[in-house]
Amino acid sequence: VKVKIPFGNKYLDAIFSVPEKKSTYGVILTHGAGGDMHFPHLVSLAAYLASHGVLCLRFTCKGLNITYRAKAFKAVVEYLKLSDDYKLSGVFLAARSMGSRAAASVIRHLSTQEEDDFVQGLICLSYPLHRPKLQSKLRDEDLLFIRCPVLFVSGSADEMCEKQLLEGVASKMKAPRKIHWIDKANHGMAVKGRTTEDVMEEINTEVFAWIRENIELEDK
């Protein structure tokens, strides 16, 4: 279902992947610095989640300014929260690369508003912890303030997220967190000798299993 989401004086293009049965939880999904919501990995994940009963809303927001991207993400969260068509108990914010930095920023901001528990967790696909070859400057400031559960899915050969550095940041986080390493994958989740479909199947099943675990905890 295609929708236009109001954002300031313009609109963001978005698509709902709707499960057959009514969903109580949803995922908001967006892309990295390049590309848009039609990026194959996002399309694959959205279809997988919807086929397993989780509503997925993916959107496009161009722009390389992280503050701008975070504002757009926040507008999408508000839109879904107030939606009459899809009444959800909560959502997970999921995104690739730069989009996951924007999502982390939104969650950090929302967590200062104590009464808001609509956002249930954060899913970072290829979180860009540092620029390539520039490991001294870590983009970890938002992660350390987040309190809701966080899942990182990263390639063990990601040139923007060195394995030991992410594990070090994770050990300092207050939030419940899990890292799933895709063996030998780079920042674009490409692995020599494996098809994209094969890699995506691993990512999709991992993301869904983690969401289900966290929903079960929440519902107990």
Mean pLDDT over the residues:
93
Strand-residue fraction? 15-25%
Assigned CATH class: Alpha Beta
Low-confidence stretches: none
Number of helices: 5
Global morphology? globular
Organism: Pedionomus torquatus
Domain KANL3/Tex30 alpha/beta hydrolase-like: 27-211
Protein name: TEX30 protein
Pfam families: Abhydrolase_11
Could you outline the blueprint of secondary structure elements for this entry?
Layout: E1 2-7, E2 10-17, E3 25-30, H1 40-51, E4 55-59, H2 66-81, E5 90-96, H3 98-111, E6 119-125, E7 150-155, H4 163-172, E8 177-182, H5 196-219
Parallel strand pairs: 3-4, 3-5, 5-6, 6-7, 7-8
Antiparallel strand pairs: 1-2, 2-4
What labels describe this entry?
single chain, 220 residues, alpha/beta, Rossmann fold, eight-stranded mixed β-sheet, 23% strand, globular, TEX30 protein, AB_hydrolase_fold, NSL3/Tex30
Provide an overview of this structure:
The chain has 220 residues and is α/β, with parallel strands linked by helices. It has a single domain, classed as Rossmann fold (3-Layer(aba) Sandwich). Helix content is 35%, strand content 23%. The chain is built from five helices and eight strands; from the N terminus they run E-E-E-H-E-H-E-H-E-E-H-E-H. Strands 1-2-4-3-5-6-7-8 form an eight-stranded mixed β-sheet, with helices on both faces. Strand 1 and strand 2 form a beta hairpin. The longest helix has 24 residues, at 196-219. The radius of gyration is 16 Å and the shape is globular. The chain starts with a strand and ends with a helix. The model has no long low-confidence stretch (mean pLDDT 93).
